[in-house]
Design goal:
This protein is mainly beta and about 55 residues long. It has one domain: Single Sheet (N-terminal domain of TfIIb). Helices cover about 10% and strands about 30% of the residues. The chain contains one helix and five strands, in the order αβββββ. Strands 1, 2, 3, 4 and 5 form a five-stranded antiparallel β-sheet that branches. The radius of gyration is 10 Å and the shape is globular. The structure holds zinc ion (ZN). The site of zinc ion has 8 residues, from loops. Zinc ion binds next to loops.
Length: about 55
């Protein structure tokens, strides 16, 4: 499933406002590395829905 590139450009991490990029089945913040899930191809940009892609 290909994401709309225009949509990606306007998306920003709700936590730190950095740009995000698609990585497999998630959208990952380039700054804080939070991973936002995709539901039916729509990014769910909610902090509650994230799982950190880094192991703390
Ligand atoms: Zn972030």
């Amino acid at each position: 499933m290909k994401l709309n590139e225009t949509l990606l450009k306007v998306l920003a991490c709700p936590k730190c406002k950095s740009s995000v990029s698609p990585q497999g089945t998630v959208i990952v913040c380039e700054h804080c590395q939070l991973a936002y899930p995709l539901r039916d191809g729509i990014p769910v940009m909610l902090i509650d829905e994230t799982r950190c892609s880094k192991k703390i």
